[in-house]
Amino acid sequence: EVQLVESGGRLVQPGGSLRLSCAASGFTFDAYAMSWVRQAPGKGLEWVSSINWNGETTYYAESGEGRFTISRDNAKNTLYLHMNSLKSEDTAVYYCNVLNFWGQGTQVTVSS
């Protein structure tokens, strides 16, 4: 059974930083690209970032370019999203995704 468990979300002030984690199990983690997707209050899903199987190729939405860094540790079956210079518009539930599997999400709230 595929399981994706996100963690690391919390309340943070504008300009702050966070690192989200996604612990994966139930599939061959290092065989698949992984993604982060978010959903802001009252809005639809928004793709944030993706990383290929070995971490050598990364992709970012314009909203996070230069502020977010996606990475993975295949030895630990874990995906990360490091977010800097956070803005109020980054407030959302953040999900990790592989194929058509999703975690339960972790809430990030950016507010003073």
Mean pLDDT: 97
Give a count of the beta strands, DSSP E runs of length 2 or more. 11
> Beta-strand percentage?
over 45%
- Category by helix and strand content: mainly beta
**What's the tally of helices?**
0
- State the low-pLDDT regions, or none: none
Shape: globular
Radius of gyration: 13 Å
Q: What characterizes the major β-sheet? A: 7 strands, mixed
Percent helix, as a range, is under 10%
Question: What this model shows, in words?
Answer:
By secondary structure, the chain is mainly beta. Helix content is 0%, strand content 51%. The protein has no helices and 11 strands. The protein has strands at 3-7, 11-12, 18-25, 34-39, 45-51, 58-60, 68-73, 78-83, 92-98, 101-102, 106-110. Strands 2, 4, 5, 6, 9, 10 and 11 form a 7-stranded mixed β-sheet that branches. A hairpin with a 5-residue loop joins strand 4 (34-39) and strand 5 (45-51). The radius of gyration is 13 Å and the shape is globular. The N and C termini lie far apart (40 Å). The mean pLDDT is 97.
